[in-house]
Write a structure and sequence with these properties.
about 120 residues; 5-stranded antiparallel sheet
Length: about 120
Amino acid sequence: MKKTTPNQKRPGKHADGESVVLAKIAEMPGPYRAIGERLHTLIKANSPVLSPKLWYGMPAYARDGKVVCFFRGAKNERYMTFAFTEEANLDQGNLWPTSFALKELTATEEANITDLLKKAVR
């Protein structure tokens, strides 16, 4: 059996990351679960260079192993949080948004998130 070094990607690693992210989303309370499923779909459709993985127990999406964005939503939280890390290419001037409270995911929010995702991975 061929062994991989720590820097080599294991076969099926992306699929495994996706399955653990989907399992984590499935554990979210009802309204957050629906938003989480939609966020997962948006991220995969608009930023195919990102790979799903768990990051500190949250669904996250990484490029070259570095997390670019993530979200969380637990039953004791008043809203979901969708956020970008410093790996996202969103720097503009001295102040730019990195974290968003999300109570509902309408077409307007989807369009805003899609724009930010495209900028984040450019």
